[in-house]
């Protein structure tokens, strides 16, 4: 593994230094191995590892390329890793979300368009007053994703997408066991939307914090 790690670091160095840029094709395996002073086997293992985390794109019959290195692509690996969380770490993920998502919601207050706000309102209207838990959780994910995307920060959006896995389960458990969870969630969503329409970043941030904290508080009491 030490040899493979060395190969990974050398390829990383080429990308970080700009010797290889997004979209560039890597030299042939034999040429690159000789240039970096690596065995072809260690280079092959490094390429395989870097392709798993979306740094490299191996195209059969065409060659190996550096990906776009867009945050959304690179942070897909976070979502994969997060899926392996233990139940007792859900609170820690929620705590991180409580720090990041209200900030993103505040940023969206000055950026989100009236059309986007109308679309989010229509989404809540279509959900109705008595949705199933599954419908509510699905709407909740899309609702917050739409707002965070309006923050204009693609890194923040990708991070929060990656963190949504464990919190989804928490929201489902809450919906199944807490009678007022549905009505409270819908009320909090409406309050966030109202603050965004008023371009009130502070109120939007506060309501987003309340929304996440209520799930966190409930889950803390059940674990």
UniProtKB/TrEMBL annotation:
Residues 1-69 form the HTH gntR-type domain. It comes from the Bacteria. Gene3D superfamilies: GntR ligand-binding domain-like (1.20.120.530), Winged helix-like DNA-binding domain superfamily/Winged helix DNA-binding domain (1.10.10.10). Keywords: DNA-binding, Transcription, Transcription regulation. The keyword Cell membrane does not apply. The keyword Cytoplasm does not apply. InterPro entries: GntR_C (IPR011711), TF_FadR/GntR_C (IPR008920), Tscrpt_reg_HTH_GntR (IPR000524), WH-like_DNA-bd_sf (IPR036388), WH_DNA-bd_sf (IPR036390). PANTHER family: GNTR-FAMILY TRANSCRIPTIONAL REGULATOR (PTHR43537:SF43), TRANSCRIPTIONAL REGULATOR, GNTR FAMILY (PTHR43537). This is FadR/GntR family transcriptional regulator. It comes from Streptomyces lutosisoli.
